[in-house]
Amino acid sequence: MPTSPHADHSPDLFDRLARDGAAEWARYVDHPFVRGMGDGSLPEAAFRHYLVQDYLFLTHFARAYALAIYKGRNLAEMRAALTGLKAILDVEMDLHVGLCAGWGVAPEELERAPEAKATMAYTRYVLETGLRGDLLDLHVALAPCVIGYAEIGKTLAARADAQAASNPYRVWIAEYSSDAYQAVATAARQNLDRLAADSLTASRYPRLLTIFQQASRLEADFWDMGLTLAD
Ligand SMILES: Cc1ncc(CO)c(N)n1
């Protein structure tokens, strides 16, 4: 893994945000939905509801990366956003549709599903933050998604019951703990640090922390929506 050019300025921006927003971060990554996947006790109906909404989430997530291309100030930034967009449209979406098929959820059902309010709230918050702000605002809003799922995947994969053949959620856990997904999260951290080196100032940090805390709250609400089958 190439080291960040700012490795000497530890902690990196992501670690700083997760530390200063520790309460919101913990409620998201250590949510009962997550623990239920880890030990296999999560009700199947909750997971299926989540899976369908996550498909809708990913379509808007792709739009956010398309916005990052638009917001790019040079070719390197535009290409970095394009790499993120392709990772969602060409890789994560296929994995997701495959995962849904394994649970008996057909692509037509995914396309037809009405969007839950928690899905609207989270995805539109990210898009609105990016529209109003610059690339750093947008990537801070996106950070809990990518980096959070990588952390959740890695934490769960370290549990013995997560890998057990009897755990119905082991495929999801394997996907997000995979080297490929961990590398996407590492790249997202490095991208944040590159943007921070360019445009982070002391007076700007509190606003970025607020974005990070809001996005983390909306991720936790997304898990709640799965558990409660909320529409
Ligand atoms: C809600 C949500 N957050 C993050 C990810 C990771 O891409 C996802 N698939 N869904």
UniProtKB/TrEMBL annotation:
It comes from Azospirillum cavernae. Residues 25-227 form the Thiaminase-2/PQQC domain. GO terms for molecular function: thiaminase activity. InterPro entries: Haem_Oase-like_multi-hlx, Thiaminase-2/PQQC, Thiaminase_II, Thiamine_Salvage_TenA. The keyword Ion transport does not apply. Keywords: Hydrolase, Thiamine biosynthesis. It catalyses: 4-amino-5-aminomethyl-2-methylpyrimidine + H2O = 4-amino-5-hydroxymethyl-2-methylpyrimidine + NH4(+); thiamine + H2O = 5-(2-hydroxyethyl)-4-methylthiazole + 4-amino-5-hydroxymethyl-2-methylpyrimidine + H(+). Pathway: Cofactor biosynthesis; thiamine diphosphate biosynthesis. Belongs to the TenA family. One of its GO terms (biological process) is thiamine biosynthetic process. GO terms for cellular component: cytosol. Catalyzes an amino-pyrimidine hydrolysis reaction at the C5' of the pyrimidine moiety of thiamine compounds, a reaction that is part of a thiamine salvage pathway. CDD domains: TenA_C_ScTHI20-like (cd19367). Pfam families: TENA_THI-4. This is Aminopyrimidine aminohydrolase. Its EC number is 3.5.99.2.
